[in-house]
Structures are given as structure tokens and as C-alpha cells.
What does this fold into?
Amino acid sequence: MTLTKEELVRYSRQLVVPEVGPEGQLRLKSAKVAVVGAGGLGNMVLACLAGAGVGELGIFDSGPVELSNLHRQFAYGTSDVGKLKTALAAARLREINPGIEVTAREGLLTAANMKGALAGYDQIADCTDNFQTRSAINRACLELGKTYVHAAVYRMEGQLAVFEPGRGPCLGCLSPLEAGDEAQACAEAGVLGPAAAAVGALQALEVIKLILGLETLKGRFAMLDFGSSRFSVAELPRWEDCPVCGKDAAKARPAPALRPAYITPEQLKAKLAEGARLRVLDLRQDWEHDLCHIPGDLRVEPEKLTGAAPGFRRGELLVLYCKGQSKSTSAWRALKAKGFEKVFVLEGGIDAWAEKIDKNMTRY
Ligand SMILES: [Zn+2]
It folds into this structure.
């Protein structure tokens, strides 16, 4: 393989970087990278890798662009709302660099199909926003023996690591949580656009360094606190009791956390229509409640429910909801632990209510 004249010109500014050079550029050209998630992190990672001349990029995501994505997902514009991210991102990357191969796969990746999806790639960037998908990537990489670059953003914080499951530490060594719903998705916890962009750029750098064979964050863990402008890197040892890669992982999987009792939007609608005695509690913030809520509900701080005095009787029928179901699931566990019997989580939260029951409701 050689570089064409057009490529020599296109990449001239990075070819002169001693760590790259023509040999490094050829390594980039023959690399295949899967980017899981085409949101805030993924947008930046994909653009950086396409620009740098990574020969083959796989985009994995599902669903359309939403208005509330645009503050951090700069590959999309206002006229893109409602269109599929995968198709838009692929078109954008082909425009950035027509010399690379881009494939887009629309659809959810789960523990069942992750391994098959990632098998054909050399490098993997985890740009997802929820713990279930992250766990599935981690396990798939353990089974495939692949290294991957993990990144996450939360409000004004970011974290970054290069995991080599089975050889070095894995996501389970860092965060042993296996039940995903405790870890709030960024849709619910919030995130600043530049924080996602900054972490995404660092993630792309780690991928490029892996391809070039340079020193990376392997075995270490970067914490980026943009609020206080404090950035630190710590050693991350492999944990021998890790539930994923530890010595007893295969025989003793931890018991999954208690699954909450759900009520579907349709069931809740029927209960409200028949005038059932129940309390619908909104655990979101004030402004979210102002934007949209279920009629007759009551907004409650989650800390109140998890604290010493929840303010409700144990026998009361309570339905908890938030945007998705992470806050409501955490509160459900806290109330269960306090002996509350009749507590339910609204399945899918206000998002599902808006989709199934009140189609005129403002979505965000
Ligand atoms: Zn581990």
C-alpha cells in the first residue's frame, strides 16, 4: 500500500508530525475502527478519525436526531431533526474524507449481538451513554480479546480509559456495577456540549495512538473535572474479584439487582381514568416538570424519597417517574428498603408517556 499524491497533500500537516510520518499514515489507512454511539462523543470521535484518514469506520447507533441533541452533537443541524443519525453521520464523514470507507449500522446493540458487530474491527471506541451498552462492549471485547477506548461524560465531568479486558483492567474493574439502571444515562443527568466534545477529542487521540503504537492510557484512568479544571490520571490495576474479568467471574456472577415493579403508561392511564387512589410522583427537576408532566402528579425531590422521611405512608400506592427510568428505579429501591409495598416505576418514564399516551406533549 502506498499514499497517493492527493493523500500526501491532504495529510501533509500530520505527516510532518514525527510520531506519524508516512509509515504511521499507512497504518491509519489500513485501520478499521468501530465507533459505538453517534452522539456527543461519537460525533467528535468520528470526525477526528475520518479527518485523520482512518481507512474504515463503522458507525453504530439507532434512532433519529432530536432537538435536544443539537447542543452537543455538532455533526447534525436543525433541519436534521427526525432523520436517522447513522445515515447523517455517514454522509458527513464521506464529505470530510471521500477516501475512506464508511459503514453505518442502524439498530440497537445489545449483549446478544455486540460480539458479532465488533468482530471485524481492530479498534473500538465506546461512545455510548448507558451502562448496559457499555457492559456489553466490555464483555464482547473480553471474549474477542480486543482493546477498546472507553469514555464517558457526566454533567461537567469526563472519564477516559483504554481497556484490554483479560490482559489489563476492564470496565468491571473500574466500576463493578452490573445492574445498569443505577448509572444515570446522560439524557437524564445532563451534559455540557464542550465537555462531551473535549472528551471525544481525547478519545479519538487514544484510538489514533493505539493504531500508531504509541503510549496510551492502557492500565490507567483519566478523570477530567471541567468544573474545577482539575485533570488527573491514576493507575488502574486489574481487580482480581472483578465480576467480569476476575478469577471467579465465570462461576460466580453476582446476583442481579432486584428488578423493580413496573407499570406501563397504558396501565397508568387506565388507573387514572378509573379514579384509583394513587399518587404519581415526578422525580425530575422543576423546569422539566414545567416543560411537561402527567396531569395530577406531584413533583418530589428524589433525595426526599431516599431520605429519612419520604413523606408518604407505607400502604399508599405510589407511581414514580422521571425522564427515562433511572431516577425512578433508584428511588424505588430506596422505598422498597424502607418497607414500602405498593410502589411502581413508570416504564419508560415521561418519554414513553409522551410517545404512547399524550402525543401532543412537549418532548425533550
Ligand atoms: Zn475486570
Summary: Residues 178-183 have pLDDT under 50 and may be disordered.
